[in-house]
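JOB MANIFEST
job_type = single_chain_structure
chain_count = 1
residues = 360
[input]
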Amino acid sequence: MFHRRWFQGLVTIVLVFVLVLLISQTQFVFTPLFRYIGAVAIPFIGAGILFYITKPLLNLLEKIKIPRIPGILIIFMLLIGLGVLFVLYIAPIVQNQFNNLIDNIPKMVKVSQDFIDDFQEERIIIPDQVQDALDNFMDNAQSHVENIVGSLFSFITNLISIIASIVLIPFFLFFMLKDSQRLIPFITQIFEKKTSKNISSLLRKIDETLAAFIQGQILVSFLLGILLFIGYWLVDLNYSLTLALFAMIMNVIPFLGPFLAVIPALIVAAFQDFMMVVWIAIITLVAQQVESNLISPSVMGRKLQLHPLTVITVILAAGSIAGFIGILFAVPFYAVIKTIYVHFYHLYQEKKLSEEAKEV
């Protein structure tokens, strides 16, 4: 019985639950470790994202015979240049549009109230529950918006506490770019040759998975943001640049991002002109079709092989557990877990076939 696979699987599950129980009962041991991980998480994740974005450029520079260190310095100069251009030319426009949007919120609330009053004057029957909900919302709409804006500014203020971590990102990025090729050999040097080969293969697959997701998602979001900005600008939508940047950021979230991105644009369009809502809906539909049928297949291809229903389920579960942070990291985390599972499953299949071949 001890050699049966179902029994071994059952023992593994029991041991995992026992391990989780022991960890929960000895939190005082792991608390300092978790605090250390939290302290380095921001610079490590930020540098990791920049690493996968800039890695293709570093490989290109090495192909044209530029040494690694000068190539890294060139990449840093380009990043600094892009940051300066954003601060000088894009940030002031976004700030001005955002301030105008905040200033117009009371006017939007008044227009909504007038619309409801006109609706009531036409003697159209509205259920009492709906009327009470509408009255409560409209009475407190401005305070709700102010609370949201206040929370946003509070969040921005709290970012000051992690500036020290953000400052470390360039240092992490420099050593990631400099020593990335040495990481896998360093990890696998303590194992036997066969085990080292399997671990190297697994780590390279994980690296390819993360690169495909990060590079693809960032590039797709950037191109989609440009398409939306062009569309918003052509139809003369108010706050077009701010709304396009918001859409660009939201589209980093797979599948759910596009739906979240279009909501502010539709709200602004509704207060600007009814036909503008139709135009925004058409622009969003066209941009999504271009992204789904042309950009994503060309940029990301089918390397990740993630089913849409699985991705949506993972995102919803991660959101309920870890909030917005969970939504952001749910898909790459799932992709890595799937890569690890597929790798060991293939090893198991190969071992099984080799044993059957020996028996024959």
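[summary]
The chain has two domains: 38-108+162-190, 191-360.
The two ends are 26 Å apart (CA to CA).
exit_status = 0
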